[in-house]
Amino acid sequence: MAKHVAVYPGSFDPITLGHLDVISRGRKLFDELIVAVGRNPGKDPLFSAEERVDMAQRLIAEMVRKNPHEAPVTVRAFSGLTVDFARDIGANVLLRGVRNLSDLQNEVQQAVTNREVAGLETAFVVAGQSFSYTSSSLIRQIAAMGDDPAALTHLCPPIVVDALRRKKLERHPALERLRVDKDE
């Protein structure tokens, strides 16, 4: 019987509790899950690919320790098209989280394209209610414009909040650009 290997792609800039919820549920659905940390050329990254992979690996290792009987998860950085990465590693499905109706519309369009172009199916999980409006973009905006990233503890794991705090103290250019946009 063929293994069901899923790829959960994203920029994870930063990884949120919503992402971890999707990963946790994906572990129950597939034999193996690969979290694919990609680069979105349309986004201004706050964390390097190495930082994003490191945070994801540490958080997922904790998840796997707590539930060792569920599917194994690996984290890998990639560049280029998600479908090419998925094919290269032998995945049969993409895993996507859907937060709301506008997500669903965009995700269905992408899923149809991926199926037609690459023969790759997409499985959707609906975000938990507490994560339905959480996005990495929103997290970055709050970190840039808010006083203290500790306000994000209900949206992000503690290691992410600490990393956001460091980026804010360093006056990271991606956060500074968000602040400038606010002040204009």
Mean pLDDT: 92
Q: What's the shape?
A: globular
Strand content: 15-25%
For the largest sheet, list the strands in their spatial order.
Answer: 3-2-1-4-5
Count of helix runs: 7
Secondary-structure content class: alpha/beta
As a whole number of angstroms, the C-alpha radius of gyration is 17 Å
Describe the structure.
The protein is an alpha/beta fold and 184 residues long. Helices cover 49% and strands 16% of the residues. A five-stranded parallel sheet has the order 3-2-1-4-5, sandwiched between helices. Helix 4 links the parallel strand 4 and strand 5. Helix 5 (136-145) crosses helix 7 (173-183). The longest helix has 18 residues, at 49-66. The chain is globular. It starts with a strand and ends with a helix. The mean pLDDT is 92.
